[in-house]
Amino acid sequence: MNETRDVVIVGAGPVGLMLACELRLAGVDVLVLERLAEMDPTLKAGAINVPTAQALYRRGFLPELMEQHEATMAQFAAFRRSAGIGEPPAGKRFVPGHFAGIQLDGGAIDLDDPVFANAGPAAAAWFISQQGIETILARRATELGVEIRREVAVSGFEDDGIGVTVNTGDRTVRAGWLVGCDGGRSIVRKLAGFDFPGVDPEITGRQAVVEMTGAEQVRPGWHDTPVGIYVYGPTPGRFLTVELDGPPADRDVPITAAELEQSFRKVTGVEIHITKVISATRFTDNTRQVPDYRKGRVLLAGDAAHVHSPFGGQGLNLGIGDALNLGWKLAAVVRGWAPADLLDTYTTERHPIGAWVLEWTRAQIAVMRTDPRSRALRAVMTDLLGTRDGATEIFKRISGVLHRYDLGGTHPMVGAVAPDLELADGTRLGEYFADGTGVLLDLNDSPALREVAAAWPHRVRVVTAKPAQPQSVSALLARPDGVVAWAADTSDVAGLQDALSRWFGPAERDA
After folding, report:
1. Is the CB of residue 199 less than 8 Å from the CB of residue 164?
2. Is 476 exposed, middle or buried (0-12, 13-18, 19+ CB in 10 A)?
3. Tens of pLDDT along 54-86?
4. For residue 32, what are the β-bridge partners?
């Protein structure tokens, strides 16, 4: 059976679903292929960072995010009570995060630092699992009319320079573009022949949710021992162990309760008995990244483009960022108002952030090692993270608020995520991105700026409003991914014109 689509996405995890939603918002005909019959229940990331929360908030997901956050916080509180360590710290000073298992003290973090200003209500939604994000996105994808075809494995494809023919056994799908969002062992990456250089693994990690007895003597939280690292909690039955004596002999062998018990005993010194394995997985610190996220008409996003150890849940956040950056650009190319060269900016913008995450995770492994030199380094890092400046700097990095793109320009906002400014009418800037277009925010009631933007009526939404508080900027243009493409403290009609042409193609009236 043959069919034709604009884009085929391989992989229905959070990254594939986020990308599918972004494409459908722009009217792109997209098909998602997934080899699994249902959502993978394996325990993965347990929290999201600020840019991810803001991205989902801009698409209208804040109520669902907060619902999941509050439910998980309730589980966390119940776990702390059962472990005899009391309620979670109350108020804004309770923040997540660790570096190499060294827990950050929320009370030491300067949350009044200007970099956290104007993050908006999304910053309060962070305690959300990967499965929670996937559930939210799957529901939205269905509402938008995305077809998700499960239990379908890609057996091959051919990129002829005009389009891609995708084979799935009994079906052939012709698409303009193919995107691999199929994880660290991506079949799309392998079949397309992407290079995947990096550093080989040296650890074996195991993460599980179980029913067990004998864990009463185990301290909740992250801890280092003479032979590795373990974490117990933050929800009932969840633990993680890290052994630093080499990668597993075979990652594909099913994980047994006996293997989990043995690893737990080795790292913690505590005997437990597991009565039921609910979810379990192995992981390593294998770190690799493709040099270019695009090869002809085949693109990669998420773990298909980069792999690393999962400490801190950075992979989920990195993948959502990839999808958000790629989605509107690929839609623009498919819809014909941008040249394929726009897709080159996907790699130039996202590759450096992926490379930073890989370096960040490798650094954590260095601090986790059990040799005397690494132990000395860990002691130094522990002292630094106990200081206000040290804790604040690390939290800035793991929260994602420092990530930005080099888009040129001189204004400090350009390349950063747009601040979620509160406006005088009671709305916030982030609320105007739900339809997936760009946004021009005019805080100075400038007819000249609005006249320029009026030439892109279907690609840029113009919002004229007064700020609730005085602002140094008088206007800003944000791309559909929320990144500031232009900003001005005074009227700059020529600069706005250039930014609109660069990111939103020819004026619609001239097209």
Report:
1. no
2. buried
3. 999 999 999 999 999 998 888 877 777 776 666
4. 9, 148
* Residue type for position 492: D
* Pairing outcome for strands 198-199 and 204-213: unpaired
pTM for the full model? Answer: 0.94
pLDDT in tens, 413-457: 999 999 999 999 999 999 999 999 999 999 999 999 999 999 999
Residues 491, 323: Cα–Cα separation, whole Å: 33
**Which amino acid is present at 498?**
D
CA 6, 10, 12, 13 dihedral sign is: negative
Name, in order, each residue with C-beta under 8 angstroms of 221's C-beta and a sequence gap of 6 or more.
103, 231, 232, 233
**What's the rounded mean pLDDT across residues 382-391?**
94
CB 99 within 8 A of CB 394: yes
Tokens of 437: 């277009």
SS3 (DSSP) at 158: strand
- Residues 66, 315, 244: CA angle, nearest 5 degrees: 120
Q: What share of the chain is helix, strand, coil (3-state, %, to 5)?
A: 40, 20, 40
> Any idea which residue has 């609320």 for tokens?
431
